[in-house]
Amino acid sequence: xxxxxxxxxxxxxxxxxxALAVAPLGxxxxxxxxLGRTGLKVSTVGFGCMITSDASVIQRAADMGINHFDTARIxxxxxxxxxxxxxxxxxxxxxxxxxxxxxxxxQRALEDLDASLRELGTDYLDVWHLHDRTSAAxxxxxxxxxxxxxxxxxxxxxxxVSTHSKAEVIRAAVAxxxxxxxxxxxxxxxxxxxxxxxxxxxxxxLGVVAMKVMAGGYRNTPYYPTPPGAKARLQRExxxxxxxxxxxxxxxxxxxxxxxVDVEQLEENFRAMSSPFTExxxxxxxxxxxxxxxxxxxxxxxxxxxxxxxxxxxxxxxYLTYADGYGQFxxxxxxxxxxxxEARQVRCRECASCxxxxxxxxxxxxxxxxxxxxxx
Amino acid sequence: MKWFLxxxxxxxxxxxxxxxxxxxxxxxxxxxxxxxxNLFEYINGNAEGYLIYRFVEMHGVTCRSGSDTIVFDVxxxxxxxxxxxxxxxxxxxxxxxxxxxxxxxxxxxxxVLVKDKYYIELAVNQxxxxxxxxxxxxxxxxxxxxxxxxLPEALGWFPAEKLVADSVRLVPxxxxxxxxxxxxxxxxxxxxxxxxxxxxxxxxxxxxxxxxRARIGETTPAKxxxxxxxxxxxxxxxxxxxxQGRYLGGYAGLPQGQDAVAPASALAARIP
Lengths: 376, 272
What we know:
heterodimer; A: alpha/beta; TIM Barrel; disordered N terminus; B: 2 domains; 7-stranded antiparallel beta sheet; elongated
């Protein structure tokens, strides 16, 4: 954390936000923010439609005032877009629909866009994302041009990119000058280094949308590996709501897209807009973090290249998590044995002291030694 | 014991993708293995779509023949119902379902098959119609994987009249968007949608009916099955829910003037 403050302070940070940063609460308990330079007034809790099975939940959300709905060409083989379109056809003018393409060529991307419009039953998308980009190199001129073409044709209003928290991609989106919105994984267990990147994107005028906001807590679907005990803790009463409130507490996150399958989830998530992130919420999340801190690699990458023996530290920590976190020893060992020979031969016990320092408190040397003893 | 281990090894081998199943194809690069907790490393952006169907494990390879490559993945789900569930949710409604294994669909560049608890996906990397090759792979996998080839029994319970063809699908969580209806099958009709949700026992199902009445509010008793009610909901439309033994079922989204009791009675009569 810049400035050296603790993670507990970080979690409590939302409590000290200036009043100006808090978006006004609209009628019916909905809080809206402006999605960067798009000017769209989006509800701070949006709707991730990927695993929603019934259109009635989406219709109810729209009636409640939630107005940002997220889908993608690949969700359920295209069937998800069809369901979302059917659900929102009666209120298309009062909601914003975002979809995504995984295409890597201009032609395929524009074909995907036409398919999205057809399945959604609409003439335009409010935001069209390049889906799941993992490096700056994946924001090619060809694809950025395809988005501009689609804009000129009136098929999309704004161009976006989605990434699973890759700061490099977000910085590249800002630098491109052609991306209006970034959609990124963002939750309280993640690398704190993402915060200033999102703030910079916000200041540059980009809209910022957060996904994976529950940190995988709801139905055993982690974005990052999380020990089973920690999942149970996150599933405690109020913890998921706290996680959602945490993700939208900062003014540079304009909306979020938690997945919702039923009315009960919708009603709980909706409450995140009307109740502020409290000290009790912070304590709940901090307790969760304390539990996983010594074990849990957040994949921030700050250890990359710091081992004098050339060990890929984050990778080995992840493989160990497969084995001792989830009981998938064979998988962890398979991955370990796929490392280059020189990495497999490293024995951390032979170093007098460990040069790798984890900024998040993982006991690196201890964990690496355990992995070497188990797998090698 | 040895016999058991041999059988276990043979079962693992059967569900492992193998490029040599079709002459002229060879494996390119290493095999892939993913479990629920790292599936996002492979299909980030859509992993939840698998996990909600109780995804257990995926084995994958990339196959090559000349300049053509096919991504060949076999996902193991918790049981055959969930394997059919992900197939039913992701299938292309514009294409027919073929009787290979439990069910299959073959596109020019994509093939999917469900057999027992395995969901098999083939994807062609090039802009090329390789449907004949895809079919050969799927047929070979059907022969190779032992186990169930029959569709879930519940598919046969929905009355055929005005049923949208091949529309029955497994909803893995919260049927009709109601958490009380934990998991079940839903079918699209010309005039609304029908559902069947199994509970553990008649008593458990009866308790859910009590909670459903409380949740929905104003209901009117109806005479069908073990118990039933009629109601109207802003989002679910006119509806008729019933309990038949340990099963909950009914219709929702019915238009005004449509008889709700008759189709619900027909559905209840088909549930064993």
